[in-house]
Each structure stands twice: as C-alpha cells, then as structure tokens.
C-alpha cells in the first residue's frame, strides 16, 4: 500500500488520540499561578515553552513523506525535470558556436551588396550636350577595401584610349576624381571644334553568379570619346566569400595546367566558330585563336569573354566562349568546380 494512503488513513485516528491526550494532560496539570501573566511586550523569549509545539513535528514529517511518495508515483515529474534539463542543454548548445563557422557567417553577411546608381555631369558645361559619367555598381559597406578595388577596376576600364599605358598609380582613385579628369579631357578635345562631341562614360559592376561561396561580378564599361562608336569592355571579378579575396585564373588552375586550359579554350573557340552565327562569318586565318584569362566560374560552365577586335571585327561585339566543367575536371582545382559538377555528384545522377 502506498505510503501516502497509509498516512491519510492514519491521520484522523492520530489526531483523535492526540486531542484526547491533550485534554487529559490539561486535567492533571498543576494549578496556574495567581499572579497575572506578563503582556506580549513584557514576555521574554525564554518564557516560551519550546516543548509546547513538538506535537506538530509528527504530522509535518508524515505530510513530507506522503508528498515524496506521491512524486515517485507521478509519471510527469521526471519528464518535466528532463525537459527542463534538455532545454538548458539546448540553450547552451545554441549559445556555443564554432568560432570559424561564426567568422564565415560574418564574412558572408559582410558581402551583402548595396548598389550605387548615379550620374555625374560636367559642372562647367551648360545645356544638354555635356560630358557625363554614369556609374552603376555594387559595393560592400563592411569591406571598404573590396569596394575600392571594384571602383579602381572600373576606372581603369573607363579610361580613354591613349597611345601610352597609364601607370596604375597615376589613375584616379575615386569615381569623382575620374569624372573630373574625364571632363578635362573632353573639354581639351573639343575646345577648338565647331561641332563638339562631349565625352561620355558608363561604368557598371553587377553580380552575375553566386555559388559555392564564390561571388562573380561582371564589370562593364562603354566609353564614348567622339568617334563613330564607343568602346565597350567586359571584365570578370571573382571573389572568394570565405576570404574576401579576388581570385584569378591562375589561382583556379592546378599547378602546371595552363597549357591544358588553353587547349580546352581553343576547343571552345572552334565550337563557337563552327556553330555560332558570328563565328561562321569569320575566316580563322584573319581572326585566329587567342588565349585569355578573363574567366568566370559560373554555375554550369566556365565563361571566357573577349574584348572587341580580339576574335573578330567590332560588329560581332565581345564574344564569350564557354567550357563545360566535364572538360576541366583535371585542370581546375576542386574548390572551383561547382558541387553539382563534381564526379561524385555526376555519378549520383
């Protein structure tokens, strides 16, 4: 029989017996003193009989034992305690994070892009025919160095064509400085002209691919300096989101695989010549194959884009050759082959 039931059945008879014993004790105790009892303020602690309340200890003990016995028979008690312990463990596990994992998360958050879209017009010009610079580019507020790198690459692409190469340290470092320099060149070129043709420049950097912790930006420029047409340009910028470092083609190739990559690129060029509308119009003797390191690892293939006049006349634009990853499995480092194109992933399909 459970202890709680025993206590509950014993309490009435125990209380009856205790009451009877108390009455009997009162009948046989000696008469009280005739002198009046002191008031509450006069009574000292030593005058209180400590044995007067000892009888209360027995029911208190029995009630405590009954509560313990009931807790043992309660199926929800352990589960509640277990749930509380589990909740504490979960909180601790959530709070304790891998420092490297947290660093990677912070880096990826830091590469969340913001967009700049602005047009700068020559402040010294009046009217509609004024030199202008239009800028549309991504930047990363938490990584100013990377944002500055994007800006400088666009500035180099937007520099007017000249007979001499402008040293890197001689280039403007900001779009504003580039625009001032660009406007000065436009003013000098048109100062004695009866039919001025103000310069214009469009610079753009946009995201075209993001996979496997790789961010691929496409940088484009179109510079008009008064000729029959402007000069376009397209360059890729590959960023490793784990390190925030710019990745070049050499970084992506396995050691000693540059000749193999050029062979794969030439196969892609031959396929473009044989199967594209633009390629079929070209004589390979006049427009032979040329290698390039302007490569971008996209989700489904490696893209290589050429400047105008490299593989053909201006009219065909800037051709882009594509190489399937199946042709680069032994050439590229595994880090730069998308997970869906690895041999293990292909065999799984």
UniProtKB/TrEMBL annotation:
Signal peptide: none
TM region positions: none
Region (Disordered): 22-45, 73-127
Coiled coil: none
Domain DUF3298 positions: 250-326
Designated name of the protein: DUF3298 domain-containing protein
Segments of skewed composition (Basic and acidic residues): 31-45
One Pfam family hit: DUF3298
Record lineage: Bacteria, Pseudomonadati, Pseudomonadota, Gammaproteobacteria, Oceanospirillales
Low complexity compositional bias, start-end: 78-108
């Amino acid at each position: 029989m459970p202890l709680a039931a025993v206590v509950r059945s014993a309490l009435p008879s125990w209380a009856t017996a205790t009451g009877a014993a108390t009455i009997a004790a009162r009948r046989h105790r000696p008469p009280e003193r005739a002198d009046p009892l002191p008031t509450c303020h006069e009574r000292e602690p030593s005058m209180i009989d400590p044995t007067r309340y000892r009888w209360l200890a027995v029911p208190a003990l029995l009630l405590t034992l009954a509560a313990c016995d009931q807790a043992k028979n309660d199926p929800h008690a352990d589960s509640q305690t277990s749930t509380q312990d589990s909740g504490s463990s979960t909180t601790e596990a959530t709070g304790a994070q891998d420092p490297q994992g947290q660093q990677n998360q912070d880096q990826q958050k830091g590469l969340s892009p913001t967009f700049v879209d602005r047009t700068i017009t020559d402040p010294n010009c009046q009217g509609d025919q004024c030199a202008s610079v239009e800028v549309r580019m991504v930047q990363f507020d938490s990584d100013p160095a990377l944002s500055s790198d994007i800006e400088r690459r666009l500035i180099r692409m937007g520099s007017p064509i000249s007979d001499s190469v402008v040293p890197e340290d001689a280039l403007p470092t900001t779009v504003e400085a580039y625009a001032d320099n660009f406007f000065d060149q436009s003013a000098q070129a048109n100062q004695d002209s009866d039919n001025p043709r103000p310069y214009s420049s469009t610079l753009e950097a946009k995201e075209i691919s993001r996979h496997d912790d790789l961010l691929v930006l496409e940088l484009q420029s179109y510079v008009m300096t008064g000729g029959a047409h402007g000069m376009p340009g397209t360059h890729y910028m590959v960023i490793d989101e784990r390190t925030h470092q710019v990745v070049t083609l050499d970084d992506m190739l396995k050691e000693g695989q540059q000749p193999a990559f050029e062979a794969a690129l030439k196969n892609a060029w031959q396929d473009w010549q044989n199967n594209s509308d633009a390629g079929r119009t070209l004589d390979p003797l006049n427009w032979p194959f040329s290698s390039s390191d302007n490569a971008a690892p996209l989700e489904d293939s490696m893209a290589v884009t050429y400047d105008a006049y490299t593989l053909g006349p201006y009219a065909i634009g800037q051709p882009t050759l594509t190489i399937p990853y199946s042709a680069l499995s032994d050439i590229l480092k595994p880090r730069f082959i998308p997970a869906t194109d690895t041999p293990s992933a292909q065999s799984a399909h």
